[in-house]
Amino acid sequence: MNRIFGRGKPKAPPPNLSDCISTVDARSESIEKKIGRLDAELLKYKDQLKKMRDGPSKNMVKQKAMRVLKQKRMYEGQREQLAQQSFNMEQANYTIQTLKDTKTTVEAMKIGAKEMKKAYKDVRLDQIDDLQDQLEDMMEEAGEVQESLSRSYGTPDIDEEDLEAELDALGDELLLDDDTSYLDEASAAPSIPEGIPNDSKTNKDGVLVDEFGLPQIPAT
Description:
The protein is an all-alpha fold. The protein has helices at residues 2-5, 17-51, 56-121, 125-149, 160-176, 181-187. It is 70% helix and 0% strand. The chain is elongated, with a radius of gyration of 61 Å.
């Protein structure tokens, strides 16, 4: 059948705002370039008019400048129209994209709400309360066990006044221990002899003594 009737042309894709905006912007850039060329031409004519005297030649150059200025005004009007069209399409495109994003957000929120409802079905408030009560009872029991284990056995009851009296007496004993009279006795002890022993030493009776102050035994 395709050989007889031929194949139909594929349908063109529907217009897209983004593509339309790009096309309009390209046309606006083209017009902007034309306006730039016309400005350069106007400057050239303006310089010529400054150097020329009044007469037919100057009037001819002036007419050319006027014609170029009219073209420039026309292009500027077209540029403004294209700029407004591009702005309107951008606003419409922004609104469409915002609506699409809103739709996606709403769908995501619906899915989230369904998942939350499904999750809440597995959670029972009464079970949570029972669990909290059980934990509280266990903590109280643990505290009682610790208190029971920390009790002391066989410790007599002692009066605090007796403890204070004993503490005061203990302070007096410590002060007595601070007596340093034994140090005076130690300092009065005979000093250790110094120097090299000398056999010629004698005591007060004229008897030879050794280095320790003892009488020497006479050699046989």
